[in-house]
Structures are given as structure tokens and as C-alpha cells.
Amino acid sequence: MKIAILSRNKRLYSTRRIVEAGELRGHDMHVLDHLRCYMNITSMRPTVSFRGEQQLGFDAVIPRIGASVTFYGTAVLRQFEMMGVFPLNESVAISRSRDKLRSIQLLARKGVGLPVTGFARNPDDIDDLLNSVGGEQFVIKLLEGTQGIGVVLAENKKAAESVIEAFLGLNANILVQEFIKEAGGADIRCFIIDGKVVASMKRQGKEGEFRSNLHRGGTAELVRITPEERSTAVRAASIMGLKVAGVDLLRSNHGPVVMEVNSSPGLEGIEGATGKDIADLIIRCIEKHADSKNTRTKGQG
């Protein structure tokens, strides 16, 4: 098959591994910088061009779209979908998962375990908001933040009020969540491919750090997950409509709670911690579904 990877940098670990895995299985792999792609939007013959050449004949496309360029990246992906190219993850599913508030609301509607979460816009409502979330400590998140950036732990209600007022003063949208102290600065990343957890790792934040992101100095190790954690992760990815996802869980006193569903999960940490060839499993997933000519986007808004 001829497979496109939408990625800003062909030298990134995840991109390189997917290219290697695809070529090992005999596929023609092409890396396209989605910000350098441009589109001719027409009802008769929609096209995508990259550096002056129309990108034709692709059987499948693998989106590796960064959070900061979600709008343009999903537009390019949607154009490929219009051309009948099979998307590993659909554009509507990526947009759904990238909207933190919307994704939490969708998960809550389906009864998936979540931290108690509050959302407000007016400073006059801060006191009531914190009371509704409850607890002594609070996690305050920018809706646009990624990789742990824009996430603050407020040690008490007074500190939380100050942080929230500062963010609202900058016209930022924020979420306020309960702090899961019993997690001990660790979370579990479950890697989902085609409705199954194919690998899982425990990420532990460095000493004194409540965020477990590997980009922030955290460490990763293989972990055995419970049936409830496995079921929660699979359901979360399914609700978002993602074939490939990284679902981040916390172990709380009231069971596993979902922190985030990532539509472009990195491969380096999970492959290093588990020793599994995740890139090969991704290519096999494409082979299974793209051959069926299942190219119509089915996701609902």
C-alpha cells in the first residue's frame, strides 16, 4: 500500500518507527508536513498538494498532528478523507479528543470514571466552583495546554482562587479538577490499537513533581493493569472514536479515572518500557482495515 504520514518532522522517533515498520512490511511510506500541504476544495475532484505536487494514489493516511496545529492538521486529514483515503484516526475523532472539555463531557455522559471536574467563566463563581469540586488541593488546567504545560497544583483553596483569577484575567479557559493524592504523582498510559490495550506503562513523576509526563523528567516502567483499568481505557478510546489512542489513567480510591485520551500518542516511551513493537501493530491495523475499502468517515460530531 501507499501510506502517508502527516508529521512535522520525519526525524521524530514515532515517525521514524512507523516508516521503518511500514517499509519492513513492503509498503510505500511518505512523510508529509501537514503545514506545508495545501488543498483544492472542490466537490468534483478534491486534491491535496505538497511542495507543488498533488498527493494522489494513497491507500491510507496516519495522522501525527501536534496539538498546537490541530485546526489545520485535521483540515488536511479531512481533505484526504474526502479523496477516499483511509484514515487511521478520523479527523472528527481527533478534534473531539483534543477539546478537553468536550471529551470530558462525552466520557461523563457514558459513565466513564473521571476526576471531579468544574468549569466556570466568571470570577464571582470561583468559590462555588471550588466547593463543588471539593477537597483540599486542586489541579487547574488550561484547556489548550499539552504535555503538562499549563497545569498547576494549588495546595489550598486560597491558592486555587488566586491561580484561577490570574488565568481568567488573561481570558484563558480553564478546568478545575480534584487532586488524586493517592496516585502519588504516577499515572498509567494504556496504548490502544483497534479496540485492544496492546501495551501499558506506569509513568512516575520526578521527586516533588505531581505531573508524570516523560517530557517533564518522568520515568516509565512496565505495569500490569487490572481488568477494570483495561475496560475503562478501551471504552474511553471507543467513545472518542479513535482506532489508535493513548489513554492516561490515575489509580484513585474510587477506581480508575481517565485524565486524557491522546490521539497521537508517542511511541518512544511505551516501546522502551514494554519492549513491544507498537509501530508494527499500527501498520497491521491499517492493513486489516484499509484493505476493506472502509474509507468513509463515520464519526459523529
Describe this structure in words.
With 301 residues, this protein is of the alpha+beta class. It has three domains: 2-89, Rossmann fold; 96-112 and 182-284, D-amino Acid Aminotransferase, Chain A, domain 1 (2-Layer Sandwich); 117-179, ATP-grasp fold, A domain (Dna Ligase, domain 1, 2-Layer Sandwich). Helix content is 33%, strand content 27%. It has nine helices and 16 strands. It has helices at 13-24, 70-82, 91-98, 100-109, 126-133, 157-169, 227-240, 268-274, 278-290, and strands at 2-6, 28-32, 37-40, 47-50, 53-54, 60-63, 86-87, 117-118, 138-142, 151-154, 174-178, 186-193, 196-204, 219-222, 244-252, 255-262. The chain has a five-stranded antiparallel β-sheet, sandwiched between helices. The protein has a four-stranded parallel β-sheet with strand order 2-1-6-7, sandwiched between helices. Strands 8-11-9-10 form a four-stranded antiparallel β-sheet, with helices on one face. A hairpin with a 2-residue loop joins β15 and β16 (255-262). α1 (13-24) crosses α9 (278-290) and α2 packs antiparallel against α3 (91-98). The radius of gyration is 20 Å and the shape is globular.
